[in-house]
Amino acid sequence: MLQQAPSLLPLSADTELAAASGPQPAARRWQWRWPIGALLPVLVLLALEAAARLELIPSRLFPPPSEVANTILALASRDLFSHIAISTLRVATGFAIGTLLAIGLGTLTGMNRRAEALLDPSFQALRAIPSLAWIPLLLLWLGIDETPKIVLIAIGAFFPVYINLVAGIHNVDRKLIEVGTIHGLPTRQLVRRILLPAALPHLFTGLRTGLSLAWMFLVAAELIAATKGVGYLLSDGRESSRPDIVLAAILILATLGKLSDSVLKRLESRKLAWRDVLASEPR
Fold first, then answer.
1. I need a labelling partner for 78 at 20 to 30 A (CA). Which of 7, 186, 215, 249 fits?
2. pLDDT tens digits, one per residue of 59-94
3. Where along the chain do its domains lie?
4. Which residues contact 26 (CB under 8 A, 6 or more apart)?
5. Measured between alpha carbons, how far is residue 238 from residues 14, 66, 242, 244, 250 in Å?
6. 155-164, pLDDT tens digit by residue?
7. Is the pLDDT of residue 6 over 50?
8. Looking at the domain 63-271, which fold is it?
9. Quick check: 203 and 164 in contact, CB under 8 A?
10. Angle separating helix axes 243-271 and 230-239, nearest 10 degrees
11. Cα–Cα distance between 250 and 231 in angstroms, integer?
12. DSSP alpha helices (H): ranges in 128-195?
């Protein structure tokens, strides 16, 4: 008669490797990711500072990072935070409008072949229009107040979300749709409980891309008779021949873009925690 195998067996190499990649090492990687990610920018800033101090780079064209930091501090003591607040509000409003429209129209064209044949060619043509090309038309149509700025940012956010959502819906397993249909789910429930959850990874990719484009379109939007905003600071530094202000505005835009993308990335990791994919830990 065969004896029962002992309950405690020595761990194999594969088992030890699997145990080593558990939650605790993931937490340690999370703790180290930000310091490692900051290493390259710090090294670049130090190299630029040294090059400027050694006069390898003309300071009138590219001031040292220490001077840019002093400029940011000087702006912070005046009205920098009001510029950041108005720009953030514009991006948030335009991004929300563009995203809602993209989700509605993307769901329609993704599910309905006739709607896709009718709408998608026009959207693909409009997607190729540069952001600056919209400005004269928006000024003629909407004036010079906040409306054309919000609309331009919404245009920038719309297309990445729309394209990725349509691609996500097209890639949903047909068997899932058939199961939902067999169980008698109406169209609204089919969209809410099957299509959108299955397309969620593509949707988050579109959201992150759309958010980055919203920050890019912000600069073009704040060229429309703006007197506040980070894009206005960028334009003001160019007109006053102040490269330190231009670089300060660029750094602020990069920081705001990274922070907002990190928020979306954390939300993506939380909402898509069910996925069993490579490198699915929060970044």
1. 215
2. 778 888 899 999 999 999 888 999 999 999 999 999
3. 63-271
4. 281
5. 59, 19, 6, 10, 12
6. 999 999 999 9
7. no
8. MetI-like fold (1.10.3720)
9. yes
10. 160
11. 9
12. 131-142, 146-170, 174-182, 187-190
Report the predicted TM-score, pTM, of the whole model to 2 decimal places. 0.80
Q: Give one DSSP letter per residue of 1-70, joined into a string.
A: -PPPPPS-----HHHHHHHHTSHHHHHHHHHHHHHHHTHHHHHHHHHHHHHHHTTSS-TTTS--HHHHHH
How many Å apart are CA 250 and CA 189, to the nearest integer? Answer: 45
pLDDT of 167 strictly over 60: yes
Q: Is the dihedral of CA 58, 61, 64, 70 positive or negative?
A: positive
Q: pLDDT for 239-249, tens place per residue?
A: 888 899 999 99
Distance CA 104, CA 119 (A): 13
Q: Name the nearest CA neighbour of 207 among 241, 168, 170.
A: 168
CA quadruple 228, 59, 72, 32: dihedral sign: positive
